[in-house]
Amino acid sequence: MDHFNPDNRNDMRQSFPEGNSRESNPEGTGNGRERAERGADFLAMAAMVLGLVSVMTCITVAIPIIAAPIAIVLALLSRGKEKLLSRNARIGLLTASAALAAVCAMCIFVFVYLARNPGIREEYMRQYEKLYQDMENPEGWDF
After folding, report:
1. Gap between the terminal Cα atoms of the chain
2. How far apart are CA 53 and CA 61, in angstroms?
3. pTM of the model
4. 79-118 pLDDT per residue, tens
Protein backbone atom coordinates (compact mmCIF):
# COMPACT_ATOMS: atom_id res chain seq x y z
CA MET A 1 0.00 0.00 0.00
CA ASP A 2 1.38 3.40 -1.05
CA HIS A 3 1.57 6.11 1.52
CA PHE A 4 1.72 9.80 0.81
CA ASN A 5 5.24 11.13 1.17
CA PRO A 6 5.33 14.97 1.40
CA ASP A 7 8.98 14.96 0.33
CA ASN A 8 8.20 13.30 -2.99
CA ARG A 9 6.73 16.13 -5.06
CA ASN A 10 6.75 14.10 -8.27
CA ASP A 11 3.87 12.01 -6.92
CA MET A 12 1.82 15.17 -6.44
CA ARG A 13 2.55 16.44 -9.97
CA GLN A 14 1.51 13.16 -11.53
CA SER A 15 -1.78 12.96 -9.66
CA PHE A 16 -2.78 16.60 -10.28
CA PRO A 17 -2.18 17.75 -13.88
CA GLU A 18 -1.15 21.36 -14.30
CA GLY A 19 -3.16 23.85 -16.30
CA ASN A 20 -6.78 23.76 -17.20
CA SER A 21 -6.59 23.16 -20.91
CA ARG A 22 -8.44 20.50 -22.84
CA GLU A 23 -5.25 18.41 -23.01
CA SER A 24 -5.20 18.03 -19.25
CA ASN A 25 -8.96 17.42 -19.15
CA PRO A 26 -10.07 15.62 -22.33
CA GLU A 27 -13.65 15.09 -21.13
CA GLY A 28 -14.26 18.84 -21.31
CA THR A 29 -15.95 19.02 -17.95
CA GLY A 30 -13.52 21.64 -16.68
CA ASN A 31 -12.65 22.60 -13.17
CA GLY A 32 -14.78 24.78 -10.95
CA ARG A 33 -13.36 28.03 -12.32
CA GLU A 34 -14.06 27.06 -15.94
CA ARG A 35 -17.63 26.03 -15.07
CA ALA A 36 -18.13 29.33 -13.24
CA GLU A 37 -16.84 31.27 -16.27
CA ARG A 38 -19.19 29.37 -18.58
CA GLY A 39 -22.06 30.09 -16.19
CA ALA A 40 -21.13 33.78 -16.09
CA ASP A 41 -20.99 33.86 -19.90
CA PHE A 42 -24.44 32.27 -20.03
CA LEU A 43 -25.84 34.83 -17.57
CA ALA A 44 -24.30 37.69 -19.55
CA MET A 45 -25.71 36.34 -22.82
CA ALA A 46 -29.16 35.91 -21.26
CA ALA A 47 -28.97 39.47 -19.92
CA MET A 48 -28.06 40.76 -23.38
CA VAL A 49 -30.91 38.88 -25.06
CA LEU A 50 -33.47 40.03 -22.48
CA GLY A 51 -32.19 43.59 -22.72
CA LEU A 52 -32.54 43.60 -26.51
CA VAL A 53 -36.00 42.04 -26.26
CA SER A 54 -36.96 44.77 -23.79
CA VAL A 55 -35.85 47.50 -26.18
CA MET A 56 -37.56 45.94 -29.19
CA THR A 57 -40.86 45.48 -27.33
CA CYS A 58 -40.83 48.83 -25.54
CA ILE A 59 -44.19 49.85 -27.01
CA THR A 60 -45.98 46.91 -25.36
CA VAL A 61 -45.08 48.12 -21.84
CA ALA A 62 -45.77 44.72 -20.22
CA ILE A 63 -42.84 42.76 -21.68
CA PRO A 64 -40.13 45.30 -20.79
CA ILE A 65 -41.47 45.70 -17.26
CA ILE A 66 -40.90 41.97 -16.76
CA ALA A 67 -37.81 41.36 -18.93
CA ALA A 68 -35.73 44.47 -18.13
CA PRO A 69 -35.36 43.94 -14.36
CA ILE A 70 -34.50 40.28 -14.97
CA ALA A 71 -31.85 41.36 -17.50
CA ILE A 72 -30.39 43.85 -15.03
CA VAL A 73 -30.16 41.22 -12.28
CA LEU A 74 -28.62 38.64 -14.64
CA ALA A 75 -26.06 41.18 -15.89
CA LEU A 76 -25.02 42.02 -12.34
CA LEU A 77 -24.91 38.36 -11.31
CA SER A 78 -22.71 37.48 -14.28
CA ARG A 79 -19.96 39.65 -12.85
CA GLY A 80 -19.28 37.19 -10.05
CA LYS A 81 -16.15 38.22 -8.17
CA GLU A 82 -14.73 40.21 -11.07
CA LYS A 83 -14.55 43.99 -10.92
CA LEU A 84 -15.77 44.64 -14.46
CA LEU A 85 -18.75 43.39 -16.42
CA SER A 86 -18.22 41.47 -19.63
CA ARG A 87 -19.19 43.00 -22.96
CA ASN A 88 -22.46 41.06 -23.21
CA ALA A 89 -23.37 41.92 -19.63
CA ARG A 90 -22.75 45.65 -20.28
CA ILE A 91 -24.90 45.53 -23.41
CA GLY A 92 -27.68 43.76 -21.49
CA LEU A 93 -27.46 46.18 -18.59
CA LEU A 94 -27.53 49.26 -20.82
CA THR A 95 -30.33 48.07 -23.10
CA ALA A 96 -32.49 46.89 -20.20
CA SER A 97 -31.95 50.17 -18.35
CA ALA A 98 -32.80 52.15 -21.48
CA ALA A 99 -35.96 50.09 -22.07
CA LEU A 100 -37.08 50.50 -18.46
CA ALA A 101 -36.44 54.25 -18.61
CA ALA A 102 -38.35 54.53 -21.90
CA VAL A 103 -41.35 52.62 -20.53
CA CYS A 104 -41.42 54.74 -17.38
CA ALA A 105 -41.18 57.94 -19.44
CA MET A 106 -43.94 56.73 -21.76
CA CYS A 107 -46.26 55.90 -18.84
CA ILE A 108 -45.61 59.25 -17.17
CA PHE A 109 -46.27 61.04 -20.47
CA VAL A 110 -49.59 59.23 -20.98
CA PHE A 111 -50.80 59.91 -17.44
CA VAL A 112 -49.81 63.59 -17.60
CA TYR A 113 -51.40 63.94 -21.04
CA LEU A 114 -54.66 62.40 -19.85
CA ALA A 115 -54.65 64.49 -16.69
CA ARG A 116 -54.21 67.74 -18.63
CA ASN A 117 -56.78 66.97 -21.34
CA PRO A 118 -60.10 66.11 -19.71
CA GLY A 119 -61.85 65.98 -23.11
CA ILE A 120 -59.78 63.01 -24.22
CA ARG A 121 -60.41 61.26 -20.91
CA GLU A 122 -64.18 61.83 -21.24
CA GLU A 123 -64.17 60.52 -24.83
CA TYR A 124 -62.29 57.43 -23.69
CA MET A 125 -64.84 56.84 -20.91
CA ARG A 126 -67.76 57.21 -23.39
CA GLN A 127 -66.21 54.63 -25.72
CA TYR A 128 -65.55 52.33 -22.77
CA GLU A 129 -69.16 52.60 -21.55
CA LYS A 130 -70.46 51.95 -25.08
CA LEU A 131 -68.29 48.85 -25.37
CA TYR A 132 -69.46 47.68 -21.95
CA GLN A 133 -73.13 48.18 -22.92
CA ASP A 134 -72.54 46.25 -26.15
CA MET A 135 -71.10 43.39 -24.12
CA GLU A 136 -74.19 43.34 -21.87
CA ASN A 137 -76.58 43.31 -24.85
CA PRO A 138 -75.01 41.06 -27.48
CA GLU A 139 -78.06 41.01 -29.80
CA GLY A 140 -76.25 43.02 -32.44
CA TRP A 141 -73.26 40.72 -32.46
CA ASP A 142 -72.94 38.14 -35.21
CA PHE A 143 -71.21 34.94 -34.21
Report:
1. 86
2. 12
3. 0.62
4. 888 888 889 999 999 999 999 999 999 999 988 988 888 8
